[in-house]
Amino acid sequence: MELYQGSLDVNEISNRWFDEVQSLNFGAFITFTGIIRAEDSIEALSFDIYRPILEKWFQSWKEEAKKRGAVVKMAHAIGDVPVAQSSYISAVASPKRRVALELIDEFVEDFKANAPIWKYDILEGKRIYAKERSTPMDGAGILEGGSK
Amino acid sequence: MIRVEFLGPIVKEPLELDIKTLKELATVMAEDSQLKEWVGICAVAVNDTIVKKSNYELHSGDVVSILPPVCGG
Lengths: 148, 73
Fold this sequence. Notes:
Chain A is an alpha+beta fold. Chain A has helices at 10-22, 51-67, 97-114, and strands at 2-5, 28-35, 44-49, 71-82, 86-94, 117-123, 126-129. Chain A starts with a strand and ends in a 19-residue tail after the last strand. In chain B, strands 2-1-5-3-4 form a five-stranded mixed sheet, with no helix packed on it.
């Protein structure tokens, strides 16, 4: 897992991961790259990350991937990322395509739902929590006696 | 004492509370004008592990993290 201050260097990261995968004799390598879209006049998005829980979350996916004979990788930005730049890359490599295609879907969707990362719009220099676009994590609502 | 830390968009200094249950924590948060809106939508971690049981028992020295809704990527 790699965390960077600001935008990701997509070429450097994906090429380096590709080089690593080549040495594993795997036939399938899929990357998912998230790019900041221009919408609602935002200048950038900004991210806060809680690293200890993110590392545990990623560790559990590494173990799940290993069970399926695959490898997962991820990189994410901390702080501001301007429009058209990348904030997030995840990747799956496996000996054959089917496992990688299924795993990248599950891995990216669970990332969206449960990785402890908070997103803010940068609008006229102000940092505004993207509450409507955020998802309560698994286990949310526990303070009210149940989970979501 | 239990230390309670608020993550991401909840701009609030950590609290030191003498509590044993998540229910007591929910009561404290519900009585705080800044925190009450977060009670129903946050996940809770104790010592960096997400808690799934609402009857989880807290012990002195535990660090509780309050995790608001997320949106990575």
